[in-house]
Design goal:
The complex is a heterotrimer of chains A (208), B (219) and C (473). With 208 residues, chain A is α/β, with parallel strands linked by helices. Chain A is 29% helix and 22% strand. Chain A has helices spanning 3-15, 38-51, 62-73, 84-88, 99-108, 158-164; strands at 55-59, 78-80, 111-114, 118-120, 125-129, 144-150, 154-155, 174-179, 183-184, 192-193, 200-206. In chain A, strand 4 (118-120) and strand 5 form a beta hairpin. The longest helix of chain B has 18 residues, at 162-179. The two termini of chain B are 16 Å apart. Classes of the chains: A alpha/beta (208), B alpha/beta (219), C alpha/beta (473).
């Protein structure tokens, strides 16, 4: 008997079940969804992210989004996702021919610019989903991460996201909830930002 | 406790046949030795109208663990089911049943209250003893920071792991000292014994009293 | 039933260590209680109840969810590896590393991998297996095991870290914590970019999505599962929850219970290797599902709930015993109340028989457990199942006999009280009787505290006098 079968046999005998025996249904998921206005969500998102040391810039249109990003990049080298929304804002993602090129660019850039799958107001969270248009290293290797996101992607909380899309990783290989900068308190519980991931997180929300 | 209950108009009876609730053996894993003692408790108290216990720990033993002890003994289990609603921890009983206006204690001291673990966590008695203390004339109640932290007694733990138990008691003592209180009040004599021993060893002149003693006081 | 007395004594006598343990756990404890207070999270108790129900349900029907997870992982292009033992799990990693020529392996913090000594096994085979969580990295350099489930280096100071970095990394002695963190970033970033395999644990496994959930603050877990060509997640079979939607409950509880954070900096939900068109992410994805004793716990209906644990360490931070003796005095990698509960179940109750008894049963742990494990209740069961110490059996046998004989009992109490009453403090332990032999309970008591002066008369005598007085009136 291989390990798989051995484990299944032990599990079934431990809980007294037979192969193919129907289970009871699981308890209902508990999702807390409450309607919040755009203003409330914006205010909450800003408060939550700023409390963690991130910044939030609210801009009315694509052109001003581009401008806001330029100000934040402040002349540093940057990498940007080949994401259609960034293209709309006029923020050019370099086309990378192969994984090595992308990786080297991310490893040396000062700033990584992405869009996002959505934002969660309650916790100040950026939800990123790995896709060809949103590589994972751009938001991870550079010391600064800027996310440029349309306002209609600002949700109230994780519960709302999961109530709309119960299995959001079905069509992606990875999803990351980014809530503020990278941090550690492993030495004397003293807070240090940017220990492995970006130490600076900026979100530009594009309204209208 | 007897004084307080009589002042409140209750007829108090002490049954000399009583001994112990059986918790020491039960908590040490000796169910076979605990069972006959618990049975003795049931023999002594089964016909009592109300049983008032001056200890959160004993109350909890009877109310929460007797059923487990007699899980395979339907006759005694029935006696447990019948007795449990009649068993009260002292402060719990006062607050739920008594006409407290008949009581006019005076205790002109600065007092801090130690939450004994079983009263707090198994009987959920956080507010009851404090409400009673607040009714006492001239008593100043100051909360210590570690009020809910265990004093370190824990029955046989206090001797089997004496160093740990002692270290826990010293933390508690530090917290008591910070309040500037002259008296520590609690519901359980075992905590009181532990704290009294630790305070005395530390050379601190702070008195340890049971809630009943405070409520009976008219100084 | 002897506890590791000398080691515990050493810990208790080390004032700096005592302060470090007490203040660090205290901060976690305070942050937790603020984060779950009724003002901040009014639905906290409902969340706990639901989390406990969901975990319990998953355990009760674990075969179904394991099958579901396996099918979903396969559909996503990943692979499930079944390991009955820690050796089997390590062998899989070793073989894969050899096959793929992966000499550098980066690892993010995982208690499961600590449990099976994965690092030691990999390093023994001359692989460069590097811990990447800052705390774990420091401990790996120092050759120590985690002191705490969530904050592994909670017992160390910046001075310790400066010494370790100087000695092991050859950098200048530097006690500035920011600089120390940046040194680790620099050294480990290179490892991330060289590594052929990244190993993570899993906080949860999602049966419906075939995904691994990893919760962290530093970003080292993200790097471990994003940068190398191969990602291996190692998890116990008890980590399953049925649906992605259940994360709404569990994530809200985990961060708050662990550190008071509503959500940690990063929560990764990894569901497979990179897909067509993606330029990064692992090309291969494996979930190693580990038994290593878990099915034994599962078979014990009364104690099965110990497998609900989500390793938040709230029980450690609130435990007055952990806060005194720290993590290394527990015999296994899992310390604190949960360690006391699961170590005997995994390793056998005979191995460290003192463990379930080293508790005052104060219940503070159960109060903060986000999945409502009845920790003191399970300790009581373990005590009951323990092989009794013959001395204790005699003592409780005598006690039981005495407690059923009120007349004898009251006589014994009277003798005891009058005798104790005559002894001045400190003399008690000079009288020759078993209780104050060097290992006797009285000696133990007096080693730490005084014996309070007993009341002048037993209550039952006062009672009789009172009744006599009443009658005279």
């Amino acid at each position: 008997m291989d390990s798989r079968d051995a484990i299944f046999e032990r599990v079934r005998s431990a809980i007294g079940r037979k192969l193919g025996q129907k289970p009871l249904p699981p308890p209902e998921p508990l999702l807390r969804v409450s309607a919040k206005t755009v203003e409330q969500r914006l205010a909450r998102f800003r408060a939550a992210l700023e409390a963690l040391g991130g910044t939030v810039t609210l801009v009315p249109n694509f052109a001003s989004a581009r401008q806001a990003v330029e100000t934040l990049v402040d002349g540093q080298s940057f990498v940007a996702s080949p994401h259609p929304f960034l293209a709309q804002c006029g923020i050019a993602g370099m086309p990378y021919a192969n994984p090595e090129e992308l990786r080297n660019a991310c490893a040396t850039a000062g700033v990584g610019i992405t869009s996002a799958y959505c934002l969660l107001a309650q916790t100040g969270t950026i939800v990123l989903r790995a896709t060809p248009q949103e590589p994972r290293l751009i938001s991870l290797l550079p010391p600064v991460h800027i996310a440029v996101v349309p306002q209609d992607r600002l949700l109230t909380n994780l519960d709302e996201m999961l109530s709309m899309i119960p299995r959001p990783v079905d069509d992606s290989s990875a999803m990351v909830l980014v809530t503020g900068p990278s941090r550690t308190g492993d030495i004397e519980q003293f807070l240090v930002r940017g220990v492995h991931g970006p130490g600076h997180v900026h979100v530009v929300i594009v309204g209208g | 406790m007897v004084d307080v209950l009589e002042q409140l108009g209750y007829e108090v009876e002490f049954r000399p046949a009583q001994t112990c609730c059986a918790q020491p053996a039960f908590n040490s894993g000796f169910h076979d030795q605990a069972r006959p003692v618990a049975e003795h408790f049931l023999d002594v108290f089964s016909d009592a109208e109300t049983i008032i216990v001056p200890s959160g720990s004993c109350t909890s033993m009877i109310k929460h663990h007797y059923a487990e002890l007699f899980a395979n003994d339907p006759k005694n289990l029935a006696r447990v089911d019948s007795i449990v609603p009649r068993v009260w921890e002292f402060s719990q009983f006062l607050l739920n049943s008594a006409d407290l206006d008949k009581l006019s204690p005076r205790f002109p001291h600065k007092v801090t209250y130690h939450d004994s673990c079983h009263a707090l966590r198994e009987l959920k008695l956080k507010d009851a003893p404090r409400l009673l203390l607040k009714r006492v004339q001239d008593l100043e109640l100051v909360e210590m920071e570690a009020a809910e932290e265990c004093c370190g007694f824990g029955g046989t733990f206090s001797v089997k792991f004496a160093q740990i138990s002692g270290a826990m008691a010293r933390t508690k003592v530090d917290s008591i000292l910070q309040t500037g209180a002259t008296h520590v009040v609690s519901l359980d004599s075992s905590c009181l014994m532990q704290l009294r021993g630790a305070l005395s060893r530390g050379g601190h002149n702070i008195e340890i009293v049971h809630l009943a003693e405070v409520l009976a006081s008219r100084k | 039933m002897s506890a590791p007395d000398p080691a515990i004594r050493t810990t208790l006598a080390d004032a700096n260590l005592q302060l470090a343990i007490y203040t660090n756990t205290g901060r976690f404890k305070d942050n937790r209680s603020k984060a779950v207070s009724p003002e901040t999270l009014p639905e906290y108790q409902d969340l706990r109840t639901r989390a406990a129900e969901i975990k319990q349900h998953t355990l009760d029907f674990l075969d179904v969810y394991l099958l579901q997870l396996e099918a979903a992982v396969n559909a996503n292009g990943g692979k499930v590896i079944w390991a009955q033992t820690g050796e089997e799990a390590a062998d899989f990693v070793l073989q894969l590393a050899k096959e793929k020529g992966a000499n550098v392996i980066v690892k993010s913090k995982s208690m499961t991998s600590e449990e099976i000594h994965l690092n030691e096994r990999l390093i023994h085979h001359e692989l460069d297996a590097v811990e990447t969580d800052l705390g774990e990295y420091i401990l790996q350099l120092a050759g120590q095991r985690p002191y705490h489930i969530v904050a592994p280096a909670i017992h160390m100071t910046r001075h310790d870290v400066a010494d370790i970095f100087e000695e092991k990394l050859g950098v200048a002695h530097d006690t500035v914590i920011e600089n120390q963190a940046m040194t680790a970033r620099r050294v480990l970033r290179e490892k991330f970019l060289q590594a052929g395999i990244g190993i993570t644990g899993a906080n949860f496994l999602l049966a419906d999505s075939g995904a691994v959930v990893i919760v962290e603050n530093e970003g080292n877990a993200r790097l471990s599962h994003s940068a190398p060509k191969i990602h291996i997640a190692i998890a116990g079979i008890e980590k399953l929850i049925p649906r992605m939607r259940d994360l709404a409950v569990f994530l809200d509880l985990l961060g708050r219970s662990a550190s008071g954070q509503p959500l940690t900096s990063y929560t990764s939900i990894v569901s497979g290797p990179r897909r067509a068109g993606e330029l990064d992410g692992p090309e291969e994805f494996y979930i190693v599902l580990l038994d290593a004793g878990r099915t034994k716990l599962l078979a014990d209906v009364e104690k099965r709930e110990s497998l609900r644990c989500i390793r938040c360490a709230a029980c450690l931070n609130t435990c007055p015993v952990y806060r005194k003796i720290g993590g290394h005095n527990y015999p296994w990698v899992y310390s604190g109340p949960i360690g006391k509960v699961i170590t005997p179940q995994f390793k056998g109750n005979e191995k460290d028989p003192w463990l379930p008894f080293a508790s005052s049963l104060c219940g503070a742990c159960a109060e903060v457990c986000p999945v409502k494990i009845d920790l003191p209740g399970i300790l009581l069961k373990l005590r009951h199942e323990a092989k009794p110490d013959p001395k204790d059996t005699r003592v409780f046998g005598l006690w039981s006999w005495l407690m059923r004989r009120p007349a004898m009992y009251s006589l014994a109490a009277k003798i005891g009280l009058s005798w104790l009453g005559r002894q001045p403090n400190g003399w008690l332990n000079k009288v020759p009787w078993p209780a104050n032999s060097p290992s006797g309970p009285l000696t133990a008591w007096l080693s730490e505290r005084d014996f309070p002066a007993p009341p002048p008369k037993p209550f039952r005598e006062l009672w009789v006098e009172r009744k006599v007085k009443e009658r005279k009136k």
